[in-house]
Amino acid sequence: MGWFRRNFLTGLVILLPTVITAYVLYRFFVSIDSILRPIVEKYPFLDFPGLGFIGVILIILLTGVFAGNLIGRRIIGWMENLVYRIPLINRIYIAIKQISEVFLKQERTVFRRAILIQYPRPGIYVIGFVTSSWKFRGADGKEQTFINVFLPTTPNPTSGLFLMIPEHEAIPLDYSIEESLKMVISGGAVMPGMQNFMTKHHMKSIQDVETERRKNQ
Prior knowledge:
Layout lengths: L1 H41 L8 H17 L2 H15 L4 H16 L8 E6 L6 E13 L5 E10 L7 E7 L4 E2 L4 H9 L8 H7 L5 H10 L2
Antiparallel strand pairs: 1-2, 1-5, 2-3, 3-4
Helix pairs in contact: 1-2
């Protein structure tokens, strides 16, 4: 029973985003097709296979062009502000938007890389995402590099904690941001190549972290 439940949930986590995306695109295609039907009836030469699909592609393309200019950005910003004021809908919209930006945006300026850190106590490891870095000079004149880390929650990665930790305490994670987010969203049910990662990289022990901390003091 445990094997069935574990594999069923894993399959559900993998298939659900794809099914939802396909369903949304299908409904969008059907809506555009129904909108174009009166035009096709009036102009029969436009009645050819794939018209609805072409219409969807053109709408997405024109939306991208529209959002790329100043007027378009202002109008979209105004519409987003209206959505943000609608209870419940605003949470769904924000979650979908942030996740879409992480997966689809060409220049991912939000998350630079995924790391492992010990939180909330030594010996417990969590996945965090580095957003930026900065340097701090103490009273002794010694400079130390800190990193800003976003620690997402499961299964909703749009909320979480903001941490500032010394750079040397971060453990590099040989996963892309997308793979790391899948692990967070699935609660660990989707763990691509974790076994290989564990055999290739020795996770820092508490003693190792303390030794490095003393060396940097």
